[in-house]
Amino acid sequence: MEHDRPSVDDLLDRSIALMVNRIDLKINRAVEADEDITYTSNACPSDRASLLRIYEAKAGEEQVAFSSSIWSLVNMRSRKILKAKELSMKNYTLAKYRNPFGDRKFKITSEDEKNMETLGTFKVGREYMDDNGHMNNVKYLEHVEEWVPELAEGKFLREIRLHFMKEAFYDEELTIKRLLKEGAWYFCMYKASGEANFECEVFTS
């Protein structure tokens, strides 16, 4: 976006922010130290209110990771979701959208929520904030990683599905819960109001 324009800064000048709703990531293998990796990212044809983007990491011709994501355009003043056509894509090199998990859906059910264990709470500090004024998406996964026991045994995250539902703002308190089900760890975060603002599914390898 920075090269082909409009860039993220161009959108911010119009009081428009890009906010990610979903990220689906499949890691085929761990990357070794000093390994040469090529990363690519492309926007995909989009309509209605969803902006689509894919990412790929390759070692030579070998794909080591692939990810898809769904974004929204948000008016920073009114907080309203805008239509995809508000972002001109005529300068971008577009790619075909595909999800690394195909049609497999991910949903934490109400029954799953009842069976989750509460791990603790934390407050959103200034070090968590991004340019849009809410908790940076990367920080969610960092908290999840702390509670995946297999990572301490030398394993790595192999499949990751992240859903962002409600923004978390500075000094908000979030509660994190966890459930192990059919080989996958499921996590939810909740605002003080009880609303779920984030959920994810992770598999390790």
Keywords:
mainly beta, 3 helices, globular, single chain, 10 strands, 10-stranded antiparallel β-sheet, 205 residues
Summarize this entry quickly:
The chain is mainly β and 205 residues long.
Fraction of residues in β-strands:
35-45%
Shape by Cα distribution: globular
State the low-pLDDT regions, or none. none
Q: What kind of oligomer do you see? A: single chain
Distance between the termini: 33 Å
Roughly how much helix do the residues carry, as a percent range? 10-25%
Q: Radius of gyration in whole Å, from Cα?
A: 18 Å
Mean pLDDT: 94
- Given the structure, what is the number of helices? 3
How many E strands? 10
Description:
The chain is mainly beta. It contains 3 helices and 10 strands; from the N terminus they run H-E-E-E-E-E-H-E-H-E-E-E-E. It has helices at residues 8-13, 110-115, 137-145, and strands at residues 16-27, 38-47, 50-59, 62-75, 81-82, 117-123, 157-164, 173-181, 184-190, 196-204. Strands 1, 2, 3, 4, 5, 6, 7, 8, 9 and 10 form a 10-stranded antiparallel β-sheet that branches. Strand 8 and strand 9 form a beta hairpin. The longest helix has 9 residues, at 137-145. The model has no long low-confidence stretch (mean pLDDT 94).
